[in-house]
Q: What sequence folds into this?
């Protein structure tokens, strides 16, 4: 981590999204760049919970229930939203408050249906540059079988003060 991210908890009551960030598993070190919008409404709706949060690896879980399509399996759009969420958070963490990521490309291949339980997404960097980042996100079921693979590229825009 660099100096733009505090490793010490801020006063919880002072952060407008303290309860939301805690509920979704985000460490205090990430709270500073989530002050304006929290995790966003889609993360709430999809019930995404972060379980690991570092520049080199972000992991999160999401329930299949409530995120299904008409045939009762995990909706591909929910998988894509999970992947984009992790990739964008990873890019923001890399930017360390000096840049803001904007997604310019997302692709996802669905290998197998997600049917029940939780899916786990693991996001790792492919490229971490000053102007762009690329991340791979692997989504697996509870048995560890890969159900989807995604790649996201973010353009890193300077933060305007």
A:
């Amino acid at each position: 981590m660099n100096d733009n991210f505090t490793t010490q908890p801020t006063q919880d009551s002072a952060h407008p999204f303290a309860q939301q960030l805690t509920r979704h598993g985000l460490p205090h070190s990430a709270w500073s760049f989530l002050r304006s919008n929290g995790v966003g409404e889609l993360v709430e709706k999809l019930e995404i919970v972060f379980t690991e949060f570092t520049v080199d690896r972000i992991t999160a879980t999401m329930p299949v229930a409530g995120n299904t399509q008409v045939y009762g399996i995990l909706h591909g759009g929910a998988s894509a939203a999970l992947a984009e969420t992790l990739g964008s958070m990873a890019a923001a963490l890399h930017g360390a408050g000096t840049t803001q990521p904007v997604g310019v490309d997302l692709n996802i291949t669905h290998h197998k249906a997600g049917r029940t339980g939780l899916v786990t997404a693991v996001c790792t960097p492919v490229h971490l540059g000053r102007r762009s980042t690329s991340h791979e996100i692997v989504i697996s079921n509870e048995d560890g079988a890969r159900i989807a693979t995604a790649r996201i590229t973010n353009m890193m825009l300077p933060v305007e003060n």
